[in-house]
């Protein structure tokens, strides 16, 4: 199969059943003005949005026996939906879509590693932003959490302590109170305790003002296990079983205290596939592929190439041809303009356009591409990967685990 014969990826549904509408719909379901419940989430006074990093919809299907609580909701048409994730299907991008309600082309965190035209270098968007890159300038739109707090909700984030003031948090998930806890069990306990403190029960009657509560609870154990060991590993399965157990206990206790007035929702930022060692390819070993490339960015499943600005039109064509000859049978290869026209990044603001690579290499098959001349050899050891436009990487669940059902189901 040639590059010309490789069918185009399914269009990204940014305006429909998409991850970027989850927090906004949750805020609307809690009765906050200024938000649209586009996903038909159930009405509740307390809404907990659990982000299970890396738990793609197909992974739930494959490991349903190890997640009996999640699977019960997943199998129900009244409690489950499948959402589209953002492109690239990577954490920084998807969490920015979730946290701002914006498309990648609007919020600007368009990958794991992103080229910054203003700095003429590649900047990591997840955990190690350069000190001179201001998160609020990089992503200037108001976050959903900030807007929800301004609309009158009590807003709480429960996550790892190190994420309290991280650049990603400041750029896309800022707002409200932050509760840090390192372990998975500790995070769920902190969430439950904080909700109980906000809505104390005395003498069988709930006391206190009925201020809406919007809580964001982040779980990254599955993603970490998947990257290191793979999604079929005992370590990944153990992490899934633990997440399933903690969610069941949280939902049971909230249901006992608050009934249907507390809604617990689960979603994910991307799926994940395991890549065999022989399919993890280092493009630095093929110098002609990087001849004319000023910067490599993105992720192994969707590499973004920023080209040397002195490269002629014929030089650009020749470079693209070399990539198509080498990878076109297993990758969607697009110029920036082509990818934008196909809607990969949704609406794209002028300030963001230059951050997107001039040439994009999105894997359709089972490969992952690395540039060890930039990253070192460490990433070659990763088993689980994501970033491209395959259904396994894009399809994420939306599960109602406690409370009422999805409307219209």
TrEMBL record:
It holds the Pfam family Phosphodiest. This is Alkaline phosphatase family protein.
């Amino acid at each position: 199969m040639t590059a010309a014969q490789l069918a185009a990826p399914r269009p990204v549904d940014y305006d429909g059943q998409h991850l970027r509408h989850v927090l906004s719909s949750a805020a609307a379901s809690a009765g906050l003005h200024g938000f649209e419940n586009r996903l038909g989430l159930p009405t509740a006074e307390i809404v907990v949005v659990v982000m299970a990093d890396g738990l793609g919809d197909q992974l739930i299907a494959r490991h349903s026996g190890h997640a009996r609580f999640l699977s019960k909701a997943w199998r129900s048409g009244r409690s489950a939906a499948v959402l589209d994730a953002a492109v690239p299907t990577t954490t920084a991008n998807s969490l920015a879509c979730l946290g701002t309600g914006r498309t990648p082309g609007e919020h600007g965190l368009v990958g794991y590693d992103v080229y910054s035209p203003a700095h003429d270098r590649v900047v990591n968007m997840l955990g190690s932003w350069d000190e001179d890159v201001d998160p609020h300038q990089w992503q200037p739109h108001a976050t959903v959490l900030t807007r929800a707090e301004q609309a009158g909700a009590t807003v709480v984030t429960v996550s790892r302590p190190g994420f309290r003031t991280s650049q990603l948090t400041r750029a896309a998930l800022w707002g409200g109170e932050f509760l840090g806890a390192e372990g998975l069990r500790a995070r769920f306990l902190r969430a439950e305790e904080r909700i109980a403190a906000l809505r104390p029960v005395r003498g069988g009657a709930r006391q206190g003002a009925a201020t809406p509560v919007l809580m964001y609870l982040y779980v990254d154990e599955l993603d970490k296990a998947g990257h290191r060991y793979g999604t079929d590993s005992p370590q990944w399965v153990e992490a899934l079983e633990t997440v399933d157990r903690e969610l069941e206990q949280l939902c049971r206790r909230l249901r006992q205290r608050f009934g249907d007035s507390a809604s617990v929702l689960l979603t994910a930022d991307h799926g994940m596939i395991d890549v065999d060692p022989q399919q993890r390819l280092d493009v630095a070993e093929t110098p002609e592929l990087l001849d004319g490339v000023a910067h490599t960015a993105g992720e192994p499943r969707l590499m973004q190439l920023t080209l040397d600005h002195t490269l002629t039109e014929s030089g650009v064509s020749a470079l693209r041809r070399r990539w198509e000859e080498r990878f076109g049978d297993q990758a969607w290869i697009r110029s920036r303009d082509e990818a934008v026209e196909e809607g990969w990044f949704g609406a794209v603001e002028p300030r963001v356009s230059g951050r997107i690579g001039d040439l994009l290499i999105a894997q359709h098959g089972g490969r992952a591409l690395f540039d060890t001349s930039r990253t070192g050899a460490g990433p070659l050891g990763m088993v689980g990967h994501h970033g491209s436009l395959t259904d396994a990487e894009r399809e994420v669940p939306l599960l109602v685990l406690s409370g009422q059902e999805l409307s219209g189901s």
